[in-house]
Design brief:
The complex is a heterodimer of chains A (114) and B (113). With 114 residues, chain A is mainly β. Chain A is built from no helices and eleven strands. In chain B, strands 2, 5, 6, 10, 11 and 12 form a six-stranded mixed β-sheet that branches. In chain B, strands 3-9-8-7 form a four-stranded antiparallel β-sheet, with no helix packed on it. With 113 residues, chain B is mainly beta. Classes of the chains: A mainly beta (114), B mainly beta (113).
């Protein structure tokens, strides 16, 4: 099976812009979770989508949003970018629930905000 | 609220020596516990997990971790490390009723030849 893919792998944006990141889960997996990874904060949970519905959400401002399509592919959007949004954004797919099932991570999208 | 603390950010160890990577969590409810590993230039992958049952869980490459409820710990151990074990190790926790998944800040294990 193909692994989790994320596009693009690298992005450079300026403050105030918005960005959309894409994640394609492993075939058959229904849940997609998103994480932000920074050197200071480590990995922080953003949100989880299951069957096109946001099932859980972390403690991030409303500028961070996402959606999931009927084929389980997911997108994450960040509006009004700030310098502090520079990070590696990871998505992970699981068959069922991320609470107990193994999460399979993609390689990430490196976002740099100038 | 939950949190995960990995007490050591960097752990250097000589090849074939034992190693312990420490992880403590805080939670008022029952938890599921995980160790994920990130090898150089690779994505995160599950190493082992504790969901229920035996408090000692093992991975296929010789690592083991023990769930200690009284000390709220889930330390990772290996009796003899190899060069190939050099990686970043992340402890993680989710609770049985909550809605988030928490990672520690990671421990960088460097195995010295």
């Amino acid at each position: 099976k193909a692994g989790v893919t994320q596009t693009p792998r690298y992005l450079i944006k300026t403050r105030g812009q918005q960005v959309t990141l894409s994640c394609s889960p492993i075939s058959g997996h229904r849940s997609v979770s998103w994480y932000q990874q920074t050197p200071g904060q480590g990995l922080q949970f953003l949100f989880e989508y299951f069957s096109e519905t946001q099932r859980n959400k972390g403690n991030f401002p409303g500028r961070f949003s996402g959606r999931q399509f009927s084929n389980s592919r997911s997108e994450m959007n960040v509006s009004t970018l700030e310098l502090g949004d520079s990070a590696l954004y990871l998505c992970a797919s699981t068959y069922g629930t991320y609470r107990t099932d193994t999460q399979y991570f993609g390689p990430g999208t490196r976002l740099t905000v100038l | 609220a939950q949190s995960v603390t990995q007490l050591d950010s960097q752990v250097p160890v000589f090849e074939e020596a034992p190693v312990e990577l420490r992880c403590n969590y805080s939670s008022s409810v029952s938890v599921y516990l995980f160790w994920y590993v990130q090898y150089p230039n690779q994505g995160l992958q599950l190493l082992l997990k504790y969901l229920s049952g035996s408090t000692l869980v093992e991975s296929i490459n010789g690592f083991e971790a023990e769930f200690n409820k009284s000390q709220t710990s889930f330390h990772l151990r290996k009796p003899s490390v190899h060069i190939s074990d050099t990686a970043e190790y992340f402890c993680a926790v989710s609770d049985t009723a909550g809605n988030q998944f928490y990672f520690g800040t990671g421990t960088s294990l460097t195995v010295i030849p």
